Amino acid sequence: MRRIMIVLVGLLITGCVPGTSVEDRAADDAREKARRVGNALHGGRVWSAQDMGHRAADLDGIDVMRVGGASTGTPEGVLVVVRTSGSAPEDWPDTGTVTVKRCFELRFNRHTEWDDTPRKVSCPRGEPIRFTPWPKTPEIPSGRLERALPRVPAAGAADEAEVRAAVAALRLDPAVRVEFMTRGAVVGVVLSVRPYLSGALDCVLARVAPGRTAVWSPPRIQRMPGEGGCSAGNAIDPMPPPH
């Protein structure tokens, strides 16, 4: 009986299950980190294989060792092999920590489930893949736009040609899309660009109307695809703010 009690106390102190080693527990920690990588990359947007690898490589403590496939929108999907480390405290009476490195295979396609358990694989030889920097999103100069747009007297009417000339003088980055619309005495302007990594558009709206010229950026929820926040119609007749 005394011996059984000693064994139970030892298990409580070490926090381990009989038959598991400290290396096993460290490997489990590494697998858990790989599982979180899979969850971070999970989503409905279609990404190329290179972009999926790049996104994984941007996460702290993750090395991308191999990337395969074309895109997440194909039946075959994308394969990403990541290398991560895991740690576990040594068994009592030792007080150190054991750290291991393990590789796991992550697959992404239209049928990938959330919180999928990654499969352990042998680590590929060589150094982790190095990715080129992400494309930069051009800045929309809202301050310059506001200063450049004409002011219309309260009894007047906005002239689209004059507004177009003011925007043209800004010499915007070619990646910035420009849209105009006239309705009655009001001219609406939209400057928009789609960031490479974000689902929401970056856009600045302007409303040139008798007595007031306004420039603003809609809330993010209105800038999502299909919401219409970055439309010329919204520049002329702005949506109410979201609740």
UniProtKB/TrEMBL annotation:
Keywords: Initiation factor, Protein biosynthesis. GO terms for molecular function: translation initiation factor activity. Residues 219-243 are annotated as: Disordered. The keyword Protein biosynthesis applies. It comes from the Bacteria. This is Translation initiation factor IF-2.
